[in-house]
Structures are given as C-alpha cells and as structure tokens.
Amino acid sequence: MKQWYDKIEAADSVEKLEEIRIAVFGKKGVLAAEFAKMKSAPNEEKAQIAKELNIHKGKMTELFNQRKIVLATEALEAAMKAEKIDVSLFSPTAERGALHPVMQTMDRIVDYFVSMNFTVNTGPIVEDDFHNFEALNLPKYHPARDMQDTFYFKDEMLLRTHTSPVQIRTMLHSKPPIRMIAPGAVFRRDYDLTHTPMFHQVEGLVVDEEGKVSFANLKFILEDFLKYMFGDVDVRFRPSFFPFTEPSAEVDISCIFCKGEGCRVCSKTGWLEVLGCGIVDPNVFEAVGYKDVSGYAFGLGVERFAMLIQHIGDLRSLFEGDVRLLEQFQ
User: Fold this and answer.
1) Is the pTM of this model over 0.90?
2) What confidence score (pLDDT) does residue 208 get?
3) What is the CB neighbour count within 10 angstroms for residue 46?
4) What's the CA angle centered on 103, arms 101 and 106, to 5 degrees?
C-alpha cells in the first residue's frame, strides 16, 4: 500500500490524481482487489484484514482530498496568471466613448423644455389600466386601444404603452398650474424597420386656469422646439384624432433631406411627420378631478427624432449594440 501513498503525494496534476483515484478506489482498483482476497482468508483473520484495509482506505482518501485541493489551487493560479491583463499597458487603439444617439437626442429634447420652465417628471414602467388607458379617455373596449398592442400582466397590470400615465399621476397629486414633460421608455408589441418592442417617448403637458392655455400657445412652443431640433424648417399642423385631446393634430416638418421638394424618405410629399398634440379633452380633467382648467399636451418618439437627425435608416440598428454604428457618434 505504501507505493500508493507515495504516488498520491507525487501526483503533479489533477488529471494524474484522477488516474490514481480510479486505480485505488475504482471497482477494479487495488482496494477492491484486497477486499476480494478476504474470501479465501481464514475466518479468524478476516476482521483484522478488514480493519487494516479500512484504515488504509480512510488515510488514502484524506491524503487524496488534500492533494486534490493543492493541485486544483495551483491549476487555478496558473490559469489566472496566464490570463492576467496588464491594465497599465498603453494601447494606441483606445478611443473616447460617447452617449448613445437616442440618449443624445433625449438629452437635447429635455434641455430645451427645461429652458422653457418645464419640470421633468417620471413614473413607473409597470402601470395599471386606469392610469394607462381609462383616465386618458380610453375606456374598456374603446377601439383606439387596438392602436397600442400592449404587454399585459395579471390583475390588469401592463407595461406602459406611452408616458401619458405620468401626466395622470402628476395631475392626481398636484394642482394647476402644471408645466411638465415625461421622458422615458415605453413598450408595445411591434417590430419592424420603424418599430421596436421598447422605445422612448417624451410627452408634455401644460395645465392652467381656464382661458390661460390655448392652441396658439401649443403651436408657438412646438414650432420653436422643432426649429431648435431641426434648424430652419417649415412646420404644419394637420387635424387628427387622439382620445385624450380635442382638437388634436399631427405635426409635420418640411423634409430635412430634400428641403421639401420630395424624396424617397418623405414619400415624395416634402413633409415628415414628427409628433402629435392637442388640447386636453375635458374627460381627462374629469378623471383627475380638475375643474375650470384648460391645457394642452404633446408627445413624440425619441428614436424617430434620432433617426432623422443622424440619418439612420433602420430603427432596429439603434438597439443592436453594433460598435461600428455607435463609433460614428463620438
């Protein structure tokens, strides 16, 4: 048996030690063979032989486990040393990082409205049906709900489909005057060249005493904002429909690619749709307990603005993490 003690102590790798384990403790190993010899030993000697073999088995097992720990530790240290990185080594390929184009655009939008005395409010991403739909004049079975393919959870909870619930929460906990924007991530079940399941919105709300807020105020702020974002562009308002505003309008800018002459990007129309807006519907004010007030609201997709400003053709590329794309925005 002594030779096996020596072999265990002399093993220089975990693999070699495993070979010894099989040779000693395996079904066809040394110990199994020694125990098998007991069949032919005199009965009065069997107990003593078994005792000695079990002592050897226990000692070799302990020695084996100790050696295994030592070898495994040495192997780990060798692997870590081989993979060690010299963090002080200078690399000429090191490059300066930059904000993601969506976050760049978001920051620029927020900066404008903060400069116009708007507060920046946030709210939960997981919303309930009341804040996301009903308080915004979208009762159950309203056909406009089909425009927003929603991710639902149990108990009427859902991933918010817009940041408008932040406006509802603000009105429920504050009194006019209110002048706020709500930037953040929103979620809809959609995926193609111009849609992703998660994207970002900035929605705005202004509420004051009745007669102090009009469509003219809304038109002024949005025209100034769009010129701030896109430069010298023409702005037009087209009648539209949104359940939470009345009257409602879509806002277009003259195509920044063809200067309004008509191209593939603007479908030869000379115009690009960029946001929606309107005067807050009285039913929304009723849902939050407001009386004798007026207000306007607007909302825009940040990715849409980023794509236009940075000339990005596929919305999905903004979320793929391709370094080749992101390097262009340093």
Assistant:
1) no
2) 95
3) 12
4) 110
